[in-house]
Amino acid sequence: MDRRKFLKGAAIGAGATALAAPALAQGGKQLTIVSTWPRDFPGLGMSAQRLAARIAEIGDGAFNVEYFAAGERVGAFDAFDEVSSGNSQAYIGPDYYWTGKHPAFAYFTAVPFGMNVAERNAWIAFGGGQELWDELSAEYGVKAFQCGPTGTQAGGWFNKEMESADDFKGLKMRMPGMGAQVLTKLGASTVSLPGSQIYENLVSGSIEATEWVGPYNDYFMKFYEAAKYYYTGGMHEPSASIAFGMNKAWFDGLTDHEKLLIEVACAEEHGVAHQEAIAKNGEYLSKLVNEHGVEVRSFSDDIWDAFGEASAEVFEETRNHSAMAAKIDDSFQAALRSYGTYLANFDGAFVNQRNRVLGLV
After folding, report:
1. For a FRET experiment, which of 48, 62, 244, 266 has its CA 20 to 30 Å from that of 95?
2. 237 within 8 A of 94, measured Cβ to Cβ
3. Which of 214, 237, 235 has the alpha carbon at shortest distance from 117?
4. What are phi and psi of 236, to 5 degrees?
């Protein structure tokens, strides 16, 4: 397969119909959406297109929706500025791409040793997370909602076995967000690449390892052609949540009903995207192993301990950035410990025993 054609738009094995490009509806208020994902990309790209189509559908003429995948209007990493400036009305992408503007944006996508999907949903809805997100985003003229968690992401693809923390020294790896800062402290050299550029850099040797999402999304990237060791349960993104970020002035100008339409559409896709990931990941992990000889590994306790020590330093540095960062970290950490204690004693205890009894691990 020609990967360039695929990344430009071939929906292969996604089990979904490609949406029209770029217009989705005519009439109503203009809603131009730019995405950080390639068109028709299984998982993330299809989720973004599904959300755009849903807004147009339930809006029933309220919005003239136009959707542009990464590179069709602006580059993946230019989506925030495109919307903040008002050139487009919304973006779909992970807010940790914008940590160069403010490091606390990472908390609204994923942070090392952070919350899983259930915990993050609780924090955003009932723990003050949405209010803090609104406060931070407003500084840049943006208003955002969650619109799609990936679940716990894989630790990454490597061309060698990672047996100790020392193996990260000098390693060239693609990883964004706070996770990249953690690896840097272990001696790795990290880069943040958009999805469309990862494969070519991995195959060429420009990078030696990469993380992306999980088995379903990763399968179609063909990373197994350059790296055979697949590490599960990464520390860096336990619940990566995608954002639907809107130009705040545009959003504030909507009627209450129009605002609710968008919020409801985002909430629906937030649930559907996670359900899809859970449903597909097991199937595609088997395909990676059985069809392509991928060797699944788990990081050792030594590596996890090193991740933990480096993460503590990263959090402290982030807190020192500003009062806003410290405020968000205070809220996040308090919620994590409250929710985590409960889940460990109930969900965690059950899952561990269920898996033991049924022989699932």
Report:
1. 62
2. no
3. 237
4. -85, -30
